[in-house]
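From the thread on structure requests for the teaching lab: each student submitted one protein with a one-line request. Submission from student K.M.:

"Model Vacuolar protein sorting-associated protein 16 homolog from Canis lupus familiaris, tokens only."
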Amino acid sequence: MDCYTANWNPLGDSAFYRKYELYSMDWDLKEELRDCLVAAAPYGGPIALLRNPWRKEKATSIRPVLEIYSASGLPLASLLWKSGPVVSLGWSAEEELLCVQEDGVVLVYGLHGDFRRHFSMGNEVLQNRVLDARIFHTEFGSGLAILTGAHRFTLSANVGDLKLRRMPEVPGLQSAPSCWTTLCQDRVAHILLAVGPDLYLLDHAACSAVTLPGLAPGVSSFLQMAVSFTYRHLALFTDTGYIWMGTSSLKEKLCEFNCNIRAPPKQMVWCSRPRSKERAVVVAWERRLMVVGDAPESIQYKQLTIQVLLDRLVLRRLYPLAIQICEYLRLPEVQGVSRILAHWACYKVQQKDVSDEDVARAINQKLGDTPGVSYSDIAARAYGCGRTELAIKLLEYEPRSGEQVPLLLKMKRSKLALSKAIESGDTDLVFTVLLHLKNELNRGDFFMTLRNQPMALSLYRQFCKHQELETLKDLYNQDDNHQELGSFHIRASYAAEERIEGRVAALQTAADAFYKAKNEFAAKATEDQMRLLRLQRRLEDELGGHFVDLSLHDTVTTLILGGHSKRAEQLARDFRIPDKRLWWLKLTALADLEDWEELEKFSKSKKSPIGYLPFVEICMKQHNKYEAKKYASRVGPEQKVKALLLVGDVAQAADVAIEHRNEAELSLVLSHCTGATDGATADKIQRARAQAQKK
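Reply posted by the TA:
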């Protein structure tokens, strides 16, 4: 029996372990690993080594070598490093090696040492240099986080689609944090860092102080932290020798272990035991390795019994004892500690012998950002006790604007509610407050409140455009916004008025407003529209038919189609329609009427300002080749070939193209030659080309 247990060693009082070699690495390292930057790819991928000659105690003039090995130590690549000092190495999800230099430039290499590309982490990183870096993996790709010499963080969640984010500043941070890591929460990358006994969580918008649930007292510094590969769990090593393990959301504690070693570990990483749900953290010192697990609780209590016990303790205001029981049983915070703290806070606001400032400060210091605690509920309790100012102070700690605003409205603090709604960026919330203010304030005070809140004013204008047009006009009048008043009266002239006289009057008001706004172009255009409306009404009275609300061009076309060419020409002169445009209108109208005789007379009335190719095109559009041929002969030389092809005269088009010696025209004609019908023409073109090449 001894032979089976001889190589097992005791671990604690009730466990044993043994160590044996699975396989030996094939590499022949010339350097100590402690003197190298090392990066191992996930899922048994390659290992990169770069000796670090830039360390002050190891300064040397010898250039380092970047070496890449397989997971079993087989050499894959080796290259002399000729670039700048490297701070960190890491592998992307695509097994590309990221080499982060001190100047913020990141060089990317393939598995076999082939250089792929490089990119920069920005000018700020370049100016302040890189102190530390982390390569991390998310569902979007592989990301990179940088700590600069200015003690600021820059982050990109996906180096494949580089978008740099400068993270918020940590208040009072004068030196590098004792430890930091990246977390991924709700599809967003965050930075968690330790400064003395304090922890801060950075996202793209804010820096928030966080507390670890159930952390043993007496911690003055965090020395190491590690996040699991799935980013679901987090471990921290404190200067008291405790290892805290919990979820990366910082909402749940899994376990806490006293390892009785206060020296900072060299490494700390998460692992999981095969075929087991138990999670563990491996902690390494210079000559010691420790595995700390969070074995599942073996004792379970009926939830009803625990809740009854806690309710009775809360009722007796034995809050510390209730919290200790929750922590001992590791109850979810929402059911345990958070609920008890909320009860305590609601009791605290009833202590009227303490000032509002002191009560609000005490509650915030105790609760912080404890999940499951609603500051709005506590504020509502304070308001119910007649402490309105305390309620307002407590609402300042409520992160959800949707919870702040309803209570502020209930407390008749509507203007403050409007400010909070605007800060939230929730337009529905802003509209809710605006409608409340409209009913609460008189018209003048309401408008004055809007003037002080540009976003609210803009949203209310959008509302009025669909619901209250007269109110919109009053808003423009109050602001002396003559440009918008002019546009308002133009819309009103078409939407509200049916009589020509009323519409013209509204347009005149719009023109006056445009003049006041010094928009002469809009004013003149409005006056032209008034003239056109009056003329269209007169045309309807004299000629019948429908003219009102037609555009100027359509009015001219309608007159031509009705046989009133003289009136159409007079209208064109009155409104200064360019001659070319009038010819196009008349040409199109006569062709639509198929009045070919009148069209021919029109073409001969004077030299066409648009040429004669449009006549050919319009006639062919009406499938009248006979008329089109009349105008093809009048087309100028530069468009003659195109005109002849339109009427189907390929042979003559070829003669003209040959005469012009124009290669583009020859190719165009050749493209229209089909089959045996145009074979002779095609041969003629080819002969002409051959003769041109000989010359």
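TA comment: Confidence is low (pLDDT under 50) at residues 296-304. DSSP finds 27 helices and 25 strands in the chain.
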